[in-house]
Design a protein that fits this description.
By secondary structure, the chain is an alpha/beta fold. It has a single domain, classed as TIM Barrel (Alpha-Beta Barrel). Helices cover 45% and strands 16% of the residues. It is built from 13 helices and twelve strands. The strands form two sheets. The chain has an eight-stranded parallel beta barrel with strand order 1-2-3-5-8-9-10-12, surrounded by six helices. The chain has a two-stranded antiparallel ribbon with strand order 6-7. It is globular, with a radius of gyration of 19 Å. 45% of the residues are buried.
Length: 355
Protein backbone atom coordinates (compact mmCIF):
# COMPACT_ATOMS: atom_id res chain seq x y z
CA UNK A 1 0.00 0.00 0.00
CA UNK A 2 2.65 2.52 1.00
CA UNK A 3 2.35 5.75 2.95
CA UNK A 4 2.19 9.11 1.20
CA UNK A 5 4.60 11.40 3.04
CA UNK A 6 4.05 15.10 3.66
CA UNK A 7 5.08 18.02 5.86
CA UNK A 8 3.33 19.70 8.80
CA UNK A 9 3.36 23.25 10.19
CA UNK A 10 1.91 25.06 13.17
CA UNK A 11 4.75 27.46 12.32
CA UNK A 12 5.79 28.47 15.79
CA UNK A 13 7.37 31.91 16.01
CA UNK A 14 9.10 32.51 19.32
CA UNK A 15 11.05 35.65 18.33
CA UNK A 16 8.11 37.58 16.87
CA UNK A 17 9.68 37.76 13.40
CA UNK A 18 6.68 36.53 11.41
CA UNK A 19 8.09 37.63 8.08
CA UNK A 20 11.02 35.26 8.65
CA UNK A 21 8.78 32.45 9.93
CA UNK A 22 6.42 32.60 6.94
CA UNK A 23 9.27 32.98 4.46
CA UNK A 24 11.12 29.97 5.86
CA UNK A 25 7.95 27.88 5.85
CA UNK A 26 7.27 28.67 2.18
CA UNK A 27 10.90 27.93 1.24
CA UNK A 28 10.76 24.60 3.09
CA UNK A 29 7.51 23.66 1.35
CA UNK A 30 8.93 24.40 -2.09
CA UNK A 31 12.02 22.36 -1.20
CA UNK A 32 9.76 19.59 0.10
CA UNK A 33 8.00 19.34 -3.25
CA UNK A 34 11.40 19.07 -4.97
CA UNK A 35 12.35 16.27 -2.54
CA UNK A 36 9.18 14.32 -3.31
CA UNK A 37 6.96 15.06 -0.33
CA UNK A 38 3.39 14.71 -1.57
CA UNK A 39 1.49 17.01 0.78
CA UNK A 40 1.74 19.82 3.31
CA UNK A 41 -0.59 20.20 6.32
CA UNK A 42 -1.35 23.44 8.17
CA UNK A 43 -2.72 23.96 11.68
CA UNK A 44 -4.89 26.81 12.94
CA UNK A 45 -3.86 28.48 16.21
CA UNK A 46 -4.33 31.88 17.84
CA UNK A 47 -2.69 34.34 20.25
CA UNK A 48 0.60 32.62 21.14
CA UNK A 49 4.05 31.73 19.86
CA UNK A 50 2.82 28.12 19.62
CA UNK A 51 1.32 28.79 16.19
CA UNK A 52 1.34 31.68 13.75
CA UNK A 53 -1.48 30.64 11.39
CA UNK A 54 -4.78 32.07 12.67
CA UNK A 55 -6.12 31.59 9.12
CA UNK A 56 -4.54 28.55 7.49
CA UNK A 57 -6.71 29.23 4.43
CA UNK A 58 -4.53 32.30 3.75
CA UNK A 59 -1.36 30.21 3.95
CA UNK A 60 -2.98 27.49 1.84
CA UNK A 61 -3.83 30.00 -0.88
CA UNK A 62 -0.23 31.22 -0.93
CA UNK A 63 1.09 27.66 -1.06
CA UNK A 64 -1.22 26.85 -3.94
CA UNK A 65 0.64 29.40 -6.04
CA UNK A 66 4.20 28.24 -5.29
CA UNK A 67 3.61 24.47 -5.65
CA UNK A 68 2.32 22.37 -8.52
CA UNK A 69 1.69 18.83 -7.28
CA UNK A 70 1.55 18.74 -3.48
CA UNK A 71 -1.80 18.20 -1.82
CA UNK A 72 -2.61 21.06 0.54
CA UNK A 73 -3.96 19.63 3.77
CA UNK A 74 -5.54 21.45 6.69
CA UNK A 75 -4.66 19.83 9.97
CA UNK A 76 -6.79 21.36 11.34
CA UNK A 77 -9.37 24.11 10.86
CA UNK A 78 -11.09 24.81 14.19
CA UNK A 79 -14.70 24.84 13.08
CA UNK A 80 -16.12 26.13 16.36
CA UNK A 81 -14.08 29.32 16.10
CA UNK A 82 -15.68 30.64 12.92
CA UNK A 83 -18.83 30.94 10.83
CA UNK A 84 -19.31 27.60 9.02
CA UNK A 85 -20.53 29.28 5.84
CA UNK A 86 -17.38 31.41 5.70
CA UNK A 87 -15.23 28.33 6.29
CA UNK A 88 -16.97 26.58 3.38
CA UNK A 89 -16.48 29.63 1.15
CA UNK A 90 -12.81 30.16 2.01
CA UNK A 91 -11.79 26.56 1.44
CA UNK A 92 -13.84 26.24 -1.74
CA UNK A 93 -11.73 29.15 -2.99
CA UNK A 94 -8.53 27.35 -1.90
CA UNK A 95 -9.65 24.26 -3.81
CA UNK A 96 -10.14 26.37 -6.95
CA UNK A 97 -6.80 28.17 -6.57
CA UNK A 98 -4.98 24.87 -6.04
CA UNK A 99 -6.77 23.17 -8.97
CA UNK A 100 -8.38 20.60 -6.69
CA UNK A 101 -5.51 19.81 -4.30
CA UNK A 102 -7.26 20.57 -0.99
CA UNK A 103 -7.56 17.97 1.77
CA UNK A 104 -9.63 19.45 4.57
CA UNK A 105 -9.08 18.51 8.20
CA UNK A 106 -11.19 19.82 11.07
CA UNK A 107 -11.54 19.71 14.83
CA UNK A 108 -13.35 21.42 17.68
CA UNK A 109 -10.39 23.20 19.33
CA UNK A 110 -8.96 22.67 22.78
CA UNK A 111 -7.01 25.71 24.00
CA UNK A 112 -9.05 27.77 26.53
CA UNK A 113 -7.01 30.92 25.84
CA UNK A 114 -7.91 30.79 22.14
CA UNK A 115 -11.60 30.28 22.84
CA UNK A 116 -11.66 33.12 25.39
CA UNK A 117 -9.87 35.51 23.03
CA UNK A 118 -12.41 34.81 20.30
CA UNK A 119 -15.39 35.01 22.64
CA UNK A 120 -16.22 31.33 22.12
CA UNK A 121 -17.45 28.92 24.80
CA UNK A 122 -15.85 25.49 25.15
CA UNK A 123 -19.21 24.08 26.23
CA UNK A 124 -21.08 21.82 23.80
CA UNK A 125 -18.16 21.91 21.38
CA UNK A 126 -18.85 18.44 20.03
CA UNK A 127 -22.48 19.25 19.26
CA UNK A 128 -21.50 22.47 17.54
CA UNK A 129 -18.68 20.75 15.64
CA UNK A 130 -20.87 18.06 14.07
CA UNK A 131 -23.52 20.61 13.10
CA UNK A 132 -20.85 22.67 11.34
CA UNK A 133 -19.57 19.54 9.58
CA UNK A 134 -23.03 19.00 8.13
CA UNK A 135 -23.24 22.61 7.01
CA UNK A 136 -19.83 22.74 5.32
CA UNK A 137 -20.27 19.44 3.51
CA UNK A 138 -23.80 20.35 2.52
CA UNK A 139 -22.65 23.62 0.98
CA UNK A 140 -19.76 21.96 -0.85
CA UNK A 141 -21.77 19.05 -2.20
CA UNK A 142 -25.06 20.68 -3.24
CA UNK A 143 -25.99 23.36 -5.76
CA UNK A 144 -28.06 25.11 -3.08
CA UNK A 145 -28.36 24.07 0.56
CA UNK A 146 -30.66 24.84 3.50
CA UNK A 147 -30.08 24.05 7.18
CA UNK A 148 -32.02 24.41 10.41
CA UNK A 149 -29.93 23.52 13.44
CA UNK A 150 -29.39 24.32 17.10
CA UNK A 151 -26.59 26.81 16.42
CA UNK A 152 -27.10 27.93 12.82
CA UNK A 153 -29.89 28.16 10.25
CA UNK A 154 -30.24 29.42 6.68
CA UNK A 155 -32.21 28.81 3.49
CA UNK A 156 -31.17 28.14 -0.10
CA UNK A 157 -27.53 29.24 0.06
CA UNK A 158 -25.30 28.69 -2.97
CA UNK A 159 -21.52 28.87 -2.67
CA UNK A 160 -19.60 30.94 -5.17
CA UNK A 161 -17.15 29.56 -6.07
CA UNK A 162 -17.91 25.86 -5.94
CA UNK A 163 -14.97 23.51 -5.20
CA UNK A 164 -13.14 21.91 -8.11
CA UNK A 165 -13.29 18.47 -6.51
CA UNK A 166 -16.54 16.56 -6.67
CA UNK A 167 -15.99 15.73 -3.01
CA UNK A 168 -13.32 17.40 -0.86
CA UNK A 169 -11.76 14.85 1.54
CA UNK A 170 -12.88 15.74 5.09
CA UNK A 171 -10.54 14.49 7.84
CA UNK A 172 -11.75 14.59 11.45
CA UNK A 173 -9.20 15.11 14.22
CA UNK A 174 -9.20 11.98 16.35
CA UNK A 175 -6.96 11.92 19.44
CA UNK A 176 -9.05 10.62 22.37
CA UNK A 177 -10.77 7.24 22.88
CA UNK A 178 -14.15 8.98 22.64
CA UNK A 179 -13.31 10.55 19.29
CA UNK A 180 -12.40 7.15 17.80
CA UNK A 181 -15.86 5.90 18.78
CA UNK A 182 -17.37 8.95 17.09
CA UNK A 183 -15.62 8.05 13.83
CA UNK A 184 -17.63 4.83 13.77
CA UNK A 185 -20.87 6.45 14.90
CA UNK A 186 -20.57 9.19 12.25
CA UNK A 187 -19.43 6.83 9.43
CA UNK A 188 -16.25 8.85 8.89
CA UNK A 189 -14.65 8.37 5.48
CA UNK A 190 -11.47 10.12 6.60
CA UNK A 191 -9.88 10.82 9.98
CA UNK A 192 -6.49 11.92 11.29
CA UNK A 193 -4.53 10.77 14.34
CA UNK A 194 -1.47 11.81 16.33
CA UNK A 195 0.12 10.57 19.58
CA UNK A 196 -0.88 13.63 21.62
CA UNK A 197 -3.01 12.11 24.38
CA UNK A 198 -1.60 8.57 24.20
CA UNK A 199 1.59 6.76 23.15
CA UNK A 200 2.01 5.57 19.57
CA UNK A 201 1.22 1.90 20.25
CA UNK A 202 -2.12 2.88 21.80
CA UNK A 203 -2.92 5.24 18.90
CA UNK A 204 -2.23 2.44 16.42
CA UNK A 205 -4.38 -0.03 18.35
CA UNK A 206 -7.33 2.40 18.43
CA UNK A 207 -6.76 3.12 14.74
CA UNK A 208 -6.81 -0.58 13.80
CA UNK A 209 -9.96 -1.21 15.79
CA UNK A 210 -11.70 1.83 14.39
CA UNK A 211 -10.76 0.93 10.82
CA UNK A 212 -12.01 -2.63 11.32
CA UNK A 213 -15.33 -1.35 12.71
CA UNK A 214 -15.75 0.99 9.74
CA UNK A 215 -14.83 -1.76 7.27
CA UNK A 216 -17.56 -3.89 8.84
CA UNK A 217 -19.98 -1.08 7.92
CA UNK A 218 -18.72 -1.04 4.32
CA UNK A 219 -16.49 2.05 4.74
CA UNK A 220 -12.78 1.87 3.87
CA UNK A 221 -11.48 5.02 5.57
CA UNK A 222 -8.51 7.15 4.58
CA UNK A 223 -6.38 7.70 7.68
CA UNK A 224 -3.73 10.40 8.14
CA UNK A 225 -1.11 10.59 10.92
CA UNK A 226 0.98 13.51 12.14
CA UNK A 227 4.33 12.86 13.87
CA UNK A 228 7.18 15.03 15.15
CA UNK A 229 10.51 13.64 13.98
CA UNK A 230 14.19 14.11 13.30
CA UNK A 231 16.50 11.75 11.42
CA UNK A 232 20.24 11.54 12.15
CA UNK A 233 23.07 9.00 12.23
CA UNK A 234 21.67 7.50 15.43
CA UNK A 235 19.07 8.10 18.12
CA UNK A 236 21.42 10.03 20.40
CA UNK A 237 22.31 12.50 17.62
CA UNK A 238 18.67 12.94 16.60
CA UNK A 239 17.74 13.75 20.21
CA UNK A 240 20.66 16.18 20.46
CA UNK A 241 19.58 17.90 17.22
CA UNK A 242 16.14 18.85 18.52
CA UNK A 243 16.15 18.50 22.32
CA UNK A 244 16.17 22.21 23.14
CA UNK A 245 13.69 23.03 20.37
CA UNK A 246 11.34 20.30 21.58
CA UNK A 247 11.56 21.54 25.17
CA UNK A 248 10.62 25.00 23.86
CA UNK A 249 7.65 23.46 22.05
CA UNK A 250 6.38 21.32 24.92
CA UNK A 251 6.86 24.07 27.52
CA UNK A 252 4.62 26.31 25.45
CA UNK A 253 1.89 23.80 24.57
CA UNK A 254 1.67 22.54 28.16
CA UNK A 255 0.84 26.10 29.23
CA UNK A 256 -2.10 26.16 26.81
CA UNK A 257 -4.00 22.88 27.15
CA UNK A 258 -7.10 22.44 29.34
CA UNK A 259 -6.07 21.67 32.91
CA UNK A 260 -2.70 23.41 32.59
CA UNK A 261 -1.18 24.56 35.89
CA UNK A 262 -4.01 23.02 37.88
CA UNK A 263 -6.83 24.90 36.14
CA UNK A 264 -10.25 23.29 35.72
CA UNK A 265 -10.73 21.59 32.36
CA UNK A 266 -14.12 22.06 30.66
CA UNK A 267 -16.41 19.02 30.30
CA UNK A 268 -15.24 16.57 27.56
CA UNK A 269 -11.65 17.89 27.85
CA UNK A 270 -10.68 15.87 30.93
CA UNK A 271 -8.07 13.77 29.11
CA UNK A 272 -6.08 16.94 28.35
CA UNK A 273 -5.95 17.69 32.07
CA UNK A 274 -4.65 14.18 32.73
CA UNK A 275 -1.86 14.74 30.23
CA UNK A 276 -1.01 18.07 31.86
CA UNK A 277 -0.52 16.24 35.17
CA UNK A 278 1.55 13.50 33.52
CA UNK A 279 3.93 16.13 32.14
CA UNK A 280 4.24 17.97 35.47
CA UNK A 281 8.02 18.03 35.87
CA UNK A 282 11.19 18.19 33.75
CA UNK A 283 10.68 16.95 30.20
CA UNK A 284 12.48 13.78 29.16
CA UNK A 285 12.74 13.86 25.37
CA UNK A 286 14.30 10.40 25.34
CA UNK A 287 11.24 8.97 27.11
CA UNK A 288 8.91 10.69 24.63
CA UNK A 289 10.93 9.11 21.83
CA UNK A 290 10.74 5.66 23.41
CA UNK A 291 6.97 6.01 23.75
CA UNK A 292 6.58 6.99 20.11
CA UNK A 293 5.19 10.45 20.88
CA UNK A 294 8.06 11.57 18.62
CA UNK A 295 10.42 9.69 16.31
CA UNK A 296 14.05 10.67 16.78
CA UNK A 297 16.14 7.98 15.15
CA UNK A 298 18.45 6.74 12.43
CA UNK A 299 17.01 6.15 8.95
CA UNK A 300 16.72 2.40 9.51
CA UNK A 301 15.32 2.95 12.98
CA UNK A 302 12.68 5.28 11.55
CA UNK A 303 11.74 2.70 8.90
CA UNK A 304 11.37 0.01 11.56
CA UNK A 305 9.20 2.25 13.73
CA UNK A 306 7.02 3.45 10.85
CA UNK A 307 6.23 -0.01 9.48
CA UNK A 308 3.58 -0.63 12.20
CA UNK A 309 2.01 2.71 11.21
CA UNK A 310 1.55 1.41 7.67
CA UNK A 311 0.30 -1.94 8.97
CA UNK A 312 -2.40 -0.14 10.99
CA UNK A 313 -3.96 1.09 7.73
CA UNK A 314 -2.62 4.64 7.84
CA UNK A 315 -2.07 5.73 4.25
CA UNK A 316 -0.66 9.25 4.61
CA UNK A 317 1.57 11.00 7.10
CA UNK A 318 2.74 14.54 7.77
CA UNK A 319 6.26 14.82 9.15
CA UNK A 320 6.66 17.60 11.70
CA UNK A 321 10.28 18.64 11.22
CA UNK A 322 9.96 22.32 12.11
CA UNK A 323 9.16 22.23 15.83
CA UNK A 324 9.89 24.75 18.54
CA UNK A 325 12.51 27.21 17.36
CA UNK A 326 14.54 24.71 15.30
CA UNK A 327 16.77 26.63 12.92
CA UNK A 328 15.81 26.80 9.23
CA UNK A 329 18.87 24.99 7.85
CA UNK A 330 18.45 22.20 10.40
CA UNK A 331 14.86 21.71 9.26
CA UNK A 332 15.93 21.49 5.61
CA UNK A 333 18.70 19.02 6.52
CA UNK A 334 16.22 16.77 8.38
CA UNK A 335 13.79 16.91 5.46
CA UNK A 336 16.46 15.84 2.97
CA UNK A 337 17.73 13.02 5.18
CA UNK A 338 14.20 11.66 5.53
CA UNK A 339 13.46 12.05 1.81
CA UNK A 340 16.69 10.35 0.76
CA UNK A 341 16.89 7.52 3.31
CA UNK A 342 13.43 6.80 4.71
CA UNK A 343 10.77 7.86 2.24
CA UNK A 344 11.85 5.58 -0.66
CA UNK A 345 11.05 2.52 1.46
CA UNK A 346 7.42 3.57 1.77
CA UNK A 347 6.93 5.09 -1.68
CA UNK A 348 7.75 1.83 -3.49
CA UNK A 349 6.52 -1.06 -1.32
CA UNK A 350 6.91 -3.63 -4.10
CA UNK A 351 10.59 -2.83 -4.52
CA UNK A 352 11.64 -2.32 -0.90
CA UNK A 353 15.28 -2.58 -0.04
CA UNK A 354 17.02 -1.87 3.23
CA UNK A 355 17.99 1.77 3.54
Amino acid sequence: MGIKMGLFYVNECHDGNYERAYGEMLEQIQYGEELGFESVWLAEHHFSAYGSMPSPQVAAAAISQITEKMDIGIGISILNFDNPVRIAEDYAMVDVLSKGRLKFGAGRGYQPMEAKGLGISLEKTRERYWEYVDIIQGLWNNYTFSYNGEFYSFENLMLTPKPVQKRIPFYHACISPESFDLMVEKNAQEFMVTPTLMVLDDVLEYTRRTRDRLLAKGIDPKIHMNLQMNIADDTAQAIKNVEQSMITYFDKVLELIPGAKGTQAPATYERFAEVAKEFDGPLNIGALNTGGVVILDSPQGAVNRLEPVEDAGIDSMSCWFRMGDLEHRQVMKAMKRFADEVMPYFKSPARRVNV
